[in-house]
Amino acid sequence: MARIQLAPEVGDDIECILDHLAQYQLEDAPGRIQEILEAISVLEHSPLIGRPVEDETRKACLRALVIGLRTRGYVALYRHVPELDFVFVLALRGQREAGYAGKGIDEL
């Protein structure tokens, strides 16, 4: 079972999501964050479930885990290190912010 580590920047990403939810006065914002974290936990048992994303700047194969749909949709960018059986979650974005509305995953 892989261990999951959230990069410190993911905390900033969660703050941005909470700010966005507050701006639109959506109820149960903490519950929404809990749903996202529970979805990320699937990486413990299936670290290769996300689609591969090539990243020239990091020179590593990253993966993108799509979580939820539409306004409840998010993307977690992560890297699996099989030698350590570790998953490093590097970023978390709303699907539209991450490019699933037509721009591309490069914005993660």
Structure commentary:
The structure is a single chain. The protein is built from two helices and five strands; from the N terminus they run E-H-H-E-E-E-E. The protein has a five-stranded mixed β-sheet. It has a single domain (3-107), classed as RelE-like (YaeB-like fold), CATH 3.30.2310. With 108 residues, it is α+β, with helices and mostly antiparallel strands. A hairpin with a 4-residue loop joins strand 4 and strand 5. Residues 100-108 have low confidence and may be disordered.
Q: What keyword list fits this structure?
A:
single chain, 108 residues, YaeB-like fold, disordered C terminus
Strand order of the largest sheet: 1-5-4-3-2
**Per DSSP, what share of the residues sits in E-state strands of 2 or more residues?**
25-35%
Distance between the terminal alpha carbons, to the nearest Å? Answer: 26 Å
Computed Rg: 14 Å
